[in-house]
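Quick question about two entries, pasted in order.
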Amino acid sequence: MTGRKRGRTAVLVGLGAVVLVVVAVAVAGLGSSGGASAGRPSIATAEPEIAMERDASTSSGEASGSAAVPDAPAQGVPVGGVQRALVRTAQLTVEVEDPAGAARQARTAAAGAGGFVTEEQSGDTGSWLVLRVPADALDRLMADIAAFGHVAARSTQTLDATEEVVDLDARVASQQASVARIRALLAEAESIGDVVAIESELATREAELDSLTRRLEMLRDQVALSTLTVDLRAPGGPQVTDPPAPGFLDGLASGWEGLRAIGSVAAAAVGFLVPFLPALAVLGGIAWLVRRAVRRRRVSGDGPVADGET
């Protein structure tokens, strides 16, 4: 009996040891898998981070826009100590003895001022040019070209784009930081699902950043380079005048032209249909003959039936 009890005790002790070993291995496996999953972003954790990043980017963009213009100043008023961004355009019409020679002088003057010619048209009565010059050289260039002859017309326009430039600057900076954070998340991603989700969001952010950057570059180009349209005319050339108000004779002439137009259209339609008249006549004659033959057959078929009944 004593031997049997000792054997049972040994068996129970061995089973207990095996259970303890199995439990220890399971706990160690769970701990390692939890640590590994905590060490890399999963799709469940990456998507909330991306959503939070999107909200942060939007709110920062709005905050930067509102912070760029404190206390909502009036439209066109410079903001704080920020340098004003002015978009300037001008038009100049000059009567000159030699329009072609004046056009060459205008190109030379624009190049000397650091500008260039974007469009040019020349004719017998004058030349027309569109110049892009640095904003600080616009007035000096207009004075130089005006000295070529007699100034017939002159106008300038100025648009204050300070607020838009400040807003785009802030939005570009915010979007750049957002793209950098998304790239950091992509560098830490390990699973395919995480990579696909983060790359899609990164492509969207980069497209928005490119759009904002292009808008800012175009606006800065308009601020840095002013546009001057120059019209060089020979003396006594065509002048732009307001047309006289239409009267009775003008209305009568317009009505007559309209009647002639309607007559021309009607004549063209008749001329188009005339070649088809012979063919239509032949088809009509054939249709009339067929219809007549059908009627005769019906009459001849009904005659005997009527006699039998009588």
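Here is the second entry:
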Amino acid sequence: MPDNKLAFLVFRRANLHTFCKKANFLRVLPNYNRKFLDTLLFSNVFIACCAVAQGAMTYHLLSLPVNYTVLAILGCATLALYNFSMILARPPHPETSPFRRVRWVFRHERSLWVWTGIALVAVWVLGLHLHKPSFVLLGVMGVMGVAYNLPIVHVSGRQRRAGLRQITGLKLFYIGLVWVMSCVLLPVAEAYHDDLHIVWYQVWQLMAWVFLFVVAITIPFDIRDIYQDRYYGLKTIPVLFGERKALVLSSTLLAVQMGWVWFSNYPLDIRLALFIASVLCLLFILVPPIKKNEYYYFLLLDGTLLLQFVVLLLVGFV
């Protein structure tokens, strides 16, 4: 009997030890998940993947063969420009910032500079494989991306020069235009110079869809920054017209895009996929499923750019 009791106690202790190890692992696992998510989002790898997805969607919707060099350029260029913009907007004391993303970026600033440099080299090397007009377009987009934050223009009422984002009413239009040029015009330009058949009304239509969608999901970011933008004198849509009207504008742009998609000449499966993605995006904006923190903006809202292509593929497989 004593032997049985001793065996039971040993067995129980071993099980307890195993349970504690599992419990510790379960506590640590979310920590690792969050670190991975922070790295994915705040290093701008995720938004770079979204740009690649938008480029791939262009090839899919225009029935063009995929040019993987162009997609690689889109990913690397987006990574470099977003990192550069974030580092350039360094606040006075980033380590005390209330924003998790700002603290993460400037804790890893040296690594971000390295990866930005590597991305720029990759863009240059890959860009040499493009046709000359496409390479020029790529250069124009690069200049536009840098000028967005670089203090190059004098804005009335400000002592220092500012980036183009500080010009009243320009920010949303500018962001939408850069995304359209990157994810639609660049793939189309390279395909055109490869002597591929281009249906131009579909190109202009897709440019409008991407513009409407990007501007619609950018407005909630401006709503988030309304007090900060007001403090720094940035004349964004929410600052000029208020949060409620900004949300109405965002919803209206998405509704216009959804209606246009639904009544287009594309097959039902494509129209359905794009419509579903826009409906989900509208729900995310009007009825946020999670707390409005960095993960809401940089994972959920930015992720709708990736979601469009994913839903397009899923519906195509059904």
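Reply: The first helix runs from residue 2 to 42. Residues 82 and 201 are 31 Å apart (CA to CA). Hope that helps.
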